[in-house]
């Protein structure tokens, strides 16, 4: 057996096929875990020293060697060789060639299986914080924009048909709510993943007296995993993380879709700044919302990652399987895609204008005050179902004669219901309706201002 063989290759005869080397390597993907791998190794070796499994001197050598490697990688001086398969092997091999014998003790009581499970958890914990910061930035952009439009009106849509009048702020604040759930969901994911698998070994633990609580504490985990078999095979948090990213993408796609529609000449509700639009190579008049279209499309990549992750996990035999290495491809792709989308959407929100004049010019189209009129009749003691029918007939009548509800005279109203009297005027027209919204969370100025105050005070407390 050749002396140049790596320890883990001694079991096998001959060298791996060239195709195998390329096929099994994950270094090209997992090298971005290097900082976490080194942090995990330092914690592990400190614990080995505490447990007298290595000497203090050996621990110092290991730690200093690892820190040097960290700097080399950070500065781009580290030579990655894919034959070493992954970031764990690459760092360990570099350590051994740097410090010799002590380096060979680093992997005592450890497997790449518990090592990689630790690394991804550490990486994801940080990544979630970064994403949460980005979510807050975007929420703030919406709240700031909402603050400018607490009195300006727009139609709220259901089925993309005009439904009822609201202030623009209320519409914008609806996205802050979606993003808040995304924020909390990511926090939940972080909470669940924050247990240390280190010390679980390959699958069954170790016969050495490892102090798992020590490494967990050093790495900032809230505790240790209870079951080594589950700990090395668990990637639930990866699926959950990608789902959380996919749902953020879903929310962003709804905004994108709205603003693609709203910025069309047919709507003209918003103007997305030129710096976030592109033109056509053929049609000189075009100003296309390509950035928003791509935000919408990225949802597909996120769903793809989620589907891939779930499928990787499906029906895997209990314990660690190499399938799990493929998790990082999708977890990183999801994180990168959603990061780019959150960044650009925040910039777009800060540079988009609502064309309030254009919106108000068409505001009385579509009988936005019809529901309020039915509720006016409820106030006059008429059962809602009946009121609904009366207003339905009135709307049909208005359509026939090309009038709005607010333009009808007392006689015309009387024909449909004697309960409608002069005071009805105060209940018709979008502005009046919005002023009368009484329920918490409704689309009026008062409710929007309350929400803005809520968000501002919440962030002040952060
Ligand atoms: N690169 C591998 C991964 O990401 C490390 C674990 C390899 N373990 C093994 N028993 N082959 O999962």
Structural commentary:
With 462 residues, the protein is mainly alpha-helical. Helix content is 60%, strand content 5%. The protein has helices at residues 18-24, 27-30, 34-50, 56-74, 87-99, 112-148, 168-193, 212-218, 228-233, 236-262, 290-313, 327-350, 356-361, 370-379, 384-401, 410-416, 430-436, 445-460, and strands at residues 153-158, 161-167, 195-196, 223-224, 270-272, 352-354. Strands 1-2 form a two-stranded antiparallel sheet. A two-stranded parallel ribbon has the order 3-4. It has a two-stranded antiparallel sheet with strand order 5-6. The model has no long low-confidence stretch (mean pLDDT 95). Residues 26, 30, 86, 112-113, 116, 320, 322, 324-325 line the site of arginine.
Topology:
Blueprint: H1 18-24, H2 27-30, H3 34-50, H4 56-74, H5 87-99, H6 112-148, E1 153-158, E2 161-167, H7 168-193, E3 195-196, H8 212-218, E4 223-224, H9 228-233, H10 236-262, E5 270-272, H11 290-313, H12 327-350, E6 352-354, H13 356-361, H14 370-379, H15 384-401, H16 410-416, H17 430-436, H18 445-460
Parallel strand pairs: 3-4
Antiparallel strand pairs: 1-2, 5-6
Helix pairs in contact: 3-4, 3-6, 3-8, 4-5, 6-7, 6-12, 6-18, 7-10, 10-11, 10-12, 11-12, 14-15
The site of arginine has 10 residues, from helix 6.
């Amino acid at each position: 057996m050749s002396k140049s063989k790596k320890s883990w290759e001694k079991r096998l005869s001959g060298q791996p096929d060239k195709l195998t080397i390329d096929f099994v390597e994950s270094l090209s993907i997992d090298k971005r875990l290097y900082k976490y791998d080194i942090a995990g190794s330092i914690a592990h070796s400190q614990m080995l020293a505490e447990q007298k499994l290595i000497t203090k001197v050996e621990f110092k050598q290991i730690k200093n060697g690892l820190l040097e490697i960290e700097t080399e990688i950070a500065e781009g001086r580290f030579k990655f060789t894919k034959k070493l398969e992954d970031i764990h092997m690459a760092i360990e091999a570099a350590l051994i060639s740097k410090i010799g014998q002590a380096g060979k003790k680093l992997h005592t009581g450890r497997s790449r299986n518990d090592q990689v499970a630790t690394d991804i958890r550490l990486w994801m914990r940080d990544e979630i914080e970064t994403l949460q910061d980005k979510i807050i930035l975007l929420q703030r952009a919406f709240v700031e924009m909402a603050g400018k439009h607490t009195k300006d009106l727009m139609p709220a849509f259901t089925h993309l048909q005009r439904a009822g009048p609201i202030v623009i702020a209320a519409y914008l604040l609806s996205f802050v709510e979606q993003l808040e759930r995304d924020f909390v969901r990511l926090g939940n994911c972080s909470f669940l993943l924050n247990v240390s698998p280190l010390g679980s070994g390959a699958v069954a633990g170790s016969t050495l007296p490892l102090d798992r609580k020590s490494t967990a504490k050093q790495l900032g985990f809230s505790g240790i995993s209870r079951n080594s078999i589950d700990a090395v095979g668990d990637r639930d948090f990866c699926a959950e993380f990608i789902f959380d990213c996919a749902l953020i993408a879903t929310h962003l796609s709804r905004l994108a879709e709205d603003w693609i529609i709203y910025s069309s000449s047919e709507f003209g509700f918003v103007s997305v700044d030129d710096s976030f639009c592109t033109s056509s190579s053929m049609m000189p008049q075009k100003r296309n919302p390509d950035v928003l279209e791509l935000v919408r499309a990225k949802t597909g990549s996120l769903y793809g990652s989620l589907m891939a992750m779930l499928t990787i996990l499906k029906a895997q035999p209990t314990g660690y399987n190499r399938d799990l290495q493929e998790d990082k491809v999708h977890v990183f792709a999801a994180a990168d895609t959603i990061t780019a989308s959150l960044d650009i959407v925040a910039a777009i929100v800060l540079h988009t204008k609502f064309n309030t004049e254009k919106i108000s010019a068409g505001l009385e189209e579509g009988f936005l005050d019809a529901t309020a009129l039915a509720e006016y009749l409820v106030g006059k003691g008429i059962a809602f179902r009946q009121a609904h029918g009366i207003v339905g007939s009135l709307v049909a009548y208005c359509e026939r004669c090309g009038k709005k509800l607010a333009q009808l005279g007392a006689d015309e109203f009387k024909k449909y219901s004697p309960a409608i009297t002069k005071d009805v005027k105060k209940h018709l027209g979008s502005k009046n309706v919005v002023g009368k919204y009484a329920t918490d969370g409704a689309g009026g100025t008062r409710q929007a201002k309350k929400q803005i105050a809520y968000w501002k005070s919440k962030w002040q407390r952060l």
